[in-house]
Design a protein that fits this description.
Length: 253
Amino acid sequence: MNEAFRSLRSPALAGVAALVVLAAILELCINLGLIPKVIVARPTDAIASIPELHAKMDLVLNFLVTFGMTFAATIIAITVGIPFGLLLYRNRVLGEAYEGWLAAAFAAPMVLLYPLFLVIFGRTYLSVVLMGCIPGAIPIIIQTRQGLLNVSRTLVNVGRSFNLEQGAMFWKILFPGAVPTIFNGIRLGIMYTLVNVVAIEYLTDFGGLGRIVSDLYFRYEIPATYAAIGFVILVSVVFYWTLGKVERWLRPV
């Protein structure tokens, strides 16, 4: 009995319960006319539109396209971001010089560069992936540097007392100590990568879920539009769940 009660209080179930309550409140407000249904679809209508939407536009395939491009862009962002953050950590002058520039670039709407990328790379998956990885790499770079700077100096001095080489120092002391901060950067990076991937799909009418949302929006199919947006949110949920598993694996204690 106690185990069942504790499971009901789990964060995942609490989140699902809150989502159900909010959906019920939204449904009630729309039924009462407090929110016009020509602007916001009833949750039940959005759910009911999923089978027909899948039959017409293959939601699963487009989900995998958006997921795959976001995953590829995130991997590129991590591959670039962590080494570059390490460089800014090791070179104090470069770190202090460029961190402000990176923060300013992070605040800029990178999605507006899409005409340039279309000219250079064409209307291709590569263009979407590269547009997605740029805003994703910036928070990873910044947070990697900050995480490494925040590693306990005592631990670093212990490593030096054992005459650890730079590689061993990084993997045995610096990286484990910076993992929480680095993963905060990766979470931010995934969010901005997904936003940019879906935005480029929407603007160029090319790709996965963003293209579907664009098509449904211009045809004014409101319930189906919200159903497609729900699948975009599902991409984010899958990424965050997977990232949490990886972080616990890297930082088991």
